[in-house]
Design goal:
Elements (H helix, E strand, L loop, with lengths): L1 H18 L1 H35 L1 E6 L4 H6 L4 E4 L4 H6 L5 E4 L4 H6 L7 E4 L4 H28 L20 H10 L2 H12 L1 H14 L1 H6 L5 H33 L16 H28 L3 H22 L17 H11 L5 H29 L6
Parallel strand pairs: 1-2, 1-3
Antiparallel strand pairs: 3-4
Helix pairs in contact: 1-11, 2-6, 2-11, 7-14, 8-11, 8-12, 8-13, 8-14, 9-11, 9-12, 9-13, 11-12, 12-13, 12-14, 12-15, 14-15
């Protein structure tokens, strides 16, 4: 009987949410449209800036040297002589100012080290590109000079390079794909799980209190726990749908390689039945945790607007662990993180995308998550029953 009541209320709540355009917009529009659009804009912006930086590199030169001829051989390099080079550099009209001391070439011919002064603007990405271009040109020019000096001394280039390092990447393409996704997917996943159910949770309790429909529901011959369970499942469904949309969206974006070929070696072969199962369990447990927390805050709130204010803390709770663990590889994540709320889900997600889940970490992470889910639902249940005080549970 209890299951049938829960199922009936659950279907009713879910149907009401699906009829709400705001729920659809928050659950699907942001992950499936906004995220790819943002990635596209970022990728397009980086490509345009890099293209412009290569095609036109205006430089100012004080002094003379044979080095300038080598510099002018680079694509897009233009030598300008504005009346005020420093001001032109700050205004973006110049990318760099090269100052060549007197007797620069003579010092080099004498076997000495000559100093080259380069002024650039680190806040301008095009100026930074110009600095890198100058640095590469100087390095190539220096190698030519070194080669001539060695030849004059009767020596070969191997004389000053006794060791030739040979670096080999032991990470497979699947691991590289997983590592690429592990930096961003846990963040998108956790934030989507937290944000996807906020509108639903706020509407299902605080919104109904404001509309006066919650009182009618609580006075019906239905146990408050059954009502809460149905609402919890409805919020979980919206959270998981939002997370699923985010996963699909980011995977498609990464496979298309919006940042200059990032998707050339992209694959999802790092997934295995075990890692996929762990990911599903983690998603379900985090969805339950956030749903319970959001319903608890929605129950405390006296109005829909007040509930929105409380919900902002949930996003903060989701983002902090995600950003803290974002740059870390699973082998560097401290053991205690697998026992902390949200941190454990993020850490296990990173292991999943690296293609190898430590059994002990999975046991601790999933076990602790079950404890946090139970605690969250317990307090949410107590608060919700208080709303229906006097009902027989």
């Amino acid at each position: 009987m209890g299951r049938q009541i829960i199922w009936t209320v659950f279907k009713k709540e879910l149907l009401d949410l699906f009829r709400d355009r705001k729920a659809w917009l928050g659950t699907f529009l942001v992950p499936l449209v906004i995220i790819p659009f943002v990635f596209f804009l970022l990728g397009n912006s980086y490509s345009n800036v890099e293209k412009e930086a290569r095609e036109y590199v205006p430089l100012a030169v004080h002094g003379s040297s044979k080095l300038i001829k080598s510099l002018q051989e680079n694509q897009g390099v233009k030598i300008l002589q504005p009346p005020d080079p420093e001001q032109a550099l700050q205004a973006g009209q110049l990318r760099a100012i090269i100052t060549i001391p007197e007797s620069f070439d003579e010092q080099i011919q004498a076997g000495k080290t000559a100093t080259l002064h380069v002024a650039f603007d680190s806040t301008n990405s095009k100026s930074v590109y110009a600095r890198d271009l100058i640095e590469r040109t100087v390095e190539a020019y220096s190698k030519e000079i070194v080669a001539k000096r060695l030849k004059q001394a009767g020596l070969s280039e191997q004389t000053i390079q006794p060791i030739a390092p040979d670096f080999q990447n032991v990470a497979s393409e699947e691991r590289q794909s997983g590592g690429m996704l592990a930096g961003i997917i846990p963040l998108m996943l956790v934030v989507s799980l937290a944000s996807g159910g906020i509108a639903s949770a706020n509407d299902l309790v605080a919104g109904e209190k404001e509309r006066g429909t919650l009182e009618s529901l609580l006075t019906a011959p239905i146990a408050a726990n059954h009502i809460l369970t149905a609402k919890l499942l409805a919020v979980m469904v919206m959270s998981i749908m939002s997370a699923g949309a985010s996963l699909i969206s980011v995977s498609l974006v990464m496979s298309m390689g919006p940042f200059g070929g990032a998707g050339d070696h992209f694959s999802l072969a790092f997934f295995s039945p075990v890692t996929l199962l762990v990911l599903i369990v983690v998603i379900l447990l985090m969805a339950a945790t956030f749903a319970g927390l959001e319903l608890m805050l929605s129950t405390i709130a006296k109005s829909f607007k007040e509930g929105q204010t409380y919900m902002s803390g949930v996003i903060f709770l989701a983002m902090v662990p995600s950003y803290m663990l974002m740059p870390q590889s699973p082998v560097d994540i401290a053991e205690h993180y697998y026992a902390l709320p949200v941190f454990n889900g993020v850490a296990l997600c990173k292991e999943v995308f690296y293609g190898k889940v430590d059994p002990l970490h999975a046991l601790v992470g999933i076990g602790s998550s079950l404890v946090y889910v139970a605690i969250t639902i317990f307090f949410a249940s107590r608060l919700f029953r208080r709303e229906g005080a006097g009902l027989k549970n």
